Amino acid sequence: MTGCLFCRIAGGEIPSTVVQQDDRFYAFRDIDPKAPVHVLAIPREHIASLNDVRGVDQVGGLLLFARDVARSLGLSERGYRVVLNTNADGGQTVFHLHVHVLGGRAMQWPPG
Ligand code: AMP
Ligand code: ZN
User: Fold this and answer.
1) Which ligand does the CA of 92 lie closest to?
2) pTM given for the model
3) Cα distance between residue 49 and residue 105, in whole Å
4) 82: phi > 0 → left, psi -120 to 50 → alpha, else beta; which?
5) Identified catalytic residue from 38, 46, 96, 98
6) pLDDT score of 25
7) Which ligand lies nearest to the CA atom of residue 9 in the structure?
8) What average pLDDT score do residues 71-80 get?
9) In the chain, pLDDT over 90 holds for what percent of residues?
10) Which residue's CA is the nearest one to ligand 1's atom 13?
11) Could you tell me the strand order of the sheet in which 18-21 lies?
12) Which of 17, 31, 80, 94 is the most buried (most CB within 10 A)?
């Protein structure tokens, strides 16, 4: 979508540090990391938030892609956290569906 930051990142218009990509999904380093490993996984298709997901394949595919990213970064055995913020109370600031993959340290619970 024109003007969407993450559409422009996935399209290569705005630079990012790519971690993994395929024809449907794109993963890149978060610009303001909250853990030693902090990667964002997004669909190439513009979907504003989880509220706008139409089918199980869109979000299921994204989750499996995030799982594969975590595996390729060596996080699988020790563990990692996948976070999906939705709208204002959820802390969403970029309105293109994305999951945060956080790892490299023990996470706390509950999140803030
Ligand atoms: P959220 O608050 O869940 O919408 O997450 C948006 C994330 O995008 C934040 O963690 C930001 O640090 C990250 N972010 C914003 N702009 C960029 C960018 N240009 N490159 C990489 N990550 C970004
Ligand atoms: Zn977008």
Assistant:
1) 1
2) 0.98
3) 27
4) beta
5) 98
6) 98
7) 1
8) 98
9) 97
10) 30
11) 18-21, 25-29, 37-43, 99-103, 80-83
12) 80
Q: Which of 21, 58, 38, 35 is nearest to 108 (CA)?
A: 35
Question: Tokens representing 85?
Answer: 């913020």
Sorted by sequence, the CB contacts under 8 Å of residue 69 that are 6+ apart come out as 19, 20, 27, 39, 41, 101
* Tokens (6 digits) for 81: 């956290």
Q: Which two tokens stand for residue 7?
A: 């559409």
Q: Give the confidence band of 1 by pLDDT, cuts at 50, 70, 90.
A: confident
Residue tagged 């504003």 (tokens):
48
Average pLDDT, the chain: 97
Q: Which residues line ligand 1 (CB under 6 A)?
A: 5, 16, 30-32, 40, 85, 91-94
Q: What's the token pair of residue 16? A: 């990012």
